[in-house]
Amino acid sequence: MKFDIHMHTLHSDGIASPADIVKAAKDAGLGGVAITDHDTMDGVEEAVAAGKKLGMIVIPAAEITTDIGDILAYGIKELPDGTPLQILNAIHEQGGVAAIAHPCGPWLPLRFVDMLKLFAGKIDALETYNASTPMAYNVEAMRVAKKAGLPGIAGSDAHLPEQVGAAFTEMDAKSVEDVLSAIKAGKVKIGWR
């Protein structure tokens, strides 16, 4: 099953409602989504309700801004805050999965390999393909993930409904718990159109 696990709605810097984004994912042939609005979970309830109506798996999630880069938090109940280490710990305390969004590029204050050393064992996956990021940085992210032995995930980073599904993470999952387990175990494949 294909999941787009990085996208935004009007609750952050996207233009569509969570329900419209879930419908766009269904129309794109996806089986599930994670709405990862910046520093808010305000759209999760609407997205989950839309997912139930459409037979889609909706993973409660957010993209959390930190001074070392953006952290994708999946399977969380509430938005963590604090230092990057506190955020990573809070994600895990909630039973969630922590991934680093678009980990390679000039927007990061630290080289990503240095970040991995600082937070060894706290990062569950890297976003190795982001449809809104230049390919050179995605290739570098794939290289870093392989060297670090971390699973790679992919998402569209959609801000418009028509961008949904431009990149996806494929896994065998029938529930949110299955998605989290598959990412942690590295039983995922990335793809794009």
Summarize the structure.
By secondary structure, the protein is of the alpha/beta class.
Report what the structure shows.
The protein has helices at residues 18-27, 44-54, 84-93, 112-118, 135-148, 176-185; strands at 2-7, 32-35, 57-59, 61-66, 69-74, 97-100, 125-130, 152-155, 167-170, 189-192. The protein has a five-stranded mixed beta sheet with strand order 3-2-1-9-10, covered by helices on one side. Strands 4-5-6-7-8 form a five-stranded mixed beta sheet. It has a single domain (2-192), classed as TIM Barrel, CATH 3.20.20.140. Helix 4 (112-118) links the parallel strand 6 and strand 7 (125-130). With 193 residues, the chain is an alpha/beta fold. The model has no long low-confidence stretch (mean pLDDT 94). Helix 1 (18-27) runs parallel beside helix 2.
Percent in strands: 15-25%
Give the terminus-to-terminus CA distance. Answer: 15 Å
Q: What is the residue-averaged pLDDT? A: 94
The coarse silhouette is: globular
Tally of individual domains: 1
Would you give the CATH topology? TIM Barrel
Structural class computed from helices and strand pairing: alpha/beta
Quick one: how many beta strands? 10
| Proportion in helices | 25-40%
Number of helices, counting only DSSP H or I runs of 4 residues or more: 6
Q: What is the rounded Rg?
A: 15 Å
Mind telling me which CATH architecture this is? Alpha-Beta Barrel
CATH superfamily: Metal-dependent hydrolases
Biggest sheet descriptor: 5 strands, mixed
Unreliable sequence segments = none
